[in-house]
């Protein structure tokens, strides 16, 4: 069974630009969660999608948004990039994270210059 | 605001030692507590705990949850160099809407 895949793996952008990251979950998984990891703040929850519905979101500004498609693939978008958005963005998929483990993808390393 | 605190922040031991990692939490809608191991890549799942007092075990690793005192411990016996990693504790605190709050992690270094 293929694991969680994220594209691109590395990205360099400049301040003010926008970026879209993609996550393909494990086949059959309906939940996709997104996290931001930085050395200072650690791992922080961005949002979770289950069957195309955003069920919850973390404390991030509205510049961070996402969506999930009918095939469970998910994208997250960050608009008007700031230097502080430089981070590793991880997505994780699960059958249902309330009851089953999540499997993390390798992450997208975003650098904002 | 939901809070998860791990201690110690870092730990250096010798192979064969036993270690105990701590995780305390203050959240509004507790659903479960999870432990992850992170090496130089994405976190890998270790345990999910939902009930107090029931130990979960996997090889040399074990974990238990105390919902009254709001903490969990992760034990690793007979440590090996391959156990060197950051161990992350997280709490699902979203009630019926999943939301994971992570602690800052414990960096474990096992020396030969």
Structure, briefly:
By secondary structure, chain A is mainly beta.
Which key phrases capture this entry?
heterodimer, A: 113 residues, mainly beta, 4-stranded antiparallel beta sheet, 53% strand, B: 112 residues, 5-stranded antiparallel beta sheet, 11 strands
Structural summary, described in words:
- The complex is a heterodimer of chains A (113) and B (112).
- With 113 residues, chain A is mainly β.
- Chain A contains no helices and eleven strands.
- In chain A, strands 2, 4, 5, 6, 9, 10 and 11 form a seven-stranded mixed beta sheet that branches. A four-stranded antiparallel beta sheet of chain A has the order 1-3-8-7, with no helix packed on it.
- The termini of chain A are far apart.
- Chain B has strands spanning 3-7, 10-14, 19-26, 32-38, 44-49, 56-58, 61-66, 71-76, 85-92, 100-102, 106-111.
- In chain B, strands 2, 4, 5, 9, 10 and 11 form a six-stranded mixed beta sheet that branches. In chain B, strands 1-3-8-7-6 form a five-stranded antiparallel beta sheet, with no helix packed on it.
- Chain B is globular and about 45 Å long.
- The N and C termini of chain B lie far apart (41 Å).
- The model of chain B has no long low-confidence stretch (mean pLDDT 93).
- Chain A binds chain B through residues 31, 33, 35, 42-45, 48, 50, 55-58, 90, 97-98, 101-107, and chain B through 31-32, 34, 41-45, 48, 88, 90, 92, 94, 97-105.
């Amino acid at each position: 069974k293929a694991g969680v895949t994220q594209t691109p793996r590395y990205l360099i952008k400049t301040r003010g630009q926008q970026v879209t990251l993609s996550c393909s979950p494990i086949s059959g998984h309906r939940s996709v969660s997104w996290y931001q990891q930085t050395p200072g703040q650690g791992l922080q929850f961005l949002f979770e999608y289950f069957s195309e519905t955003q069920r919850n979101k973390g404390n991030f500004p509205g510049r961070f948004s996402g969506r999930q498609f009918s095939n469970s693939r998910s994208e997250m978008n960050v608009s008007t990039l700031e230097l502080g958005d430089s981070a590793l963005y991880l997505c994780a998929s699960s059958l249902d994270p309330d009851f089953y483990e999540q499997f993390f993808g390798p992450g997208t390393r975003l650098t904002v210059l | 605001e939901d809070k998860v605190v791990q201690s110690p922040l870092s730990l250096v031991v010798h192979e064969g030692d036993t270690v105990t990692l701590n995780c305390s939490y203050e959240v509004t809608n507790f659903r479960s507590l999870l432990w992850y191991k992170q090496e130089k890549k994405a976190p890998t799942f270790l345990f999910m705990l939902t009930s107090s007092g029931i130990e979960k075990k996997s090889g040399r690793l074990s974990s238990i949850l105390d919902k009254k005192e709001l903490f969990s411990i992760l034990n690793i016996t007979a440590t090996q160099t391959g156990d060197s990693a950051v161990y992350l504790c997280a709490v699902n605190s979203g009630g019926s809407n999943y939301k994971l709050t992570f602690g800052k992690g414990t960096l474990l270094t096992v020396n030969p």
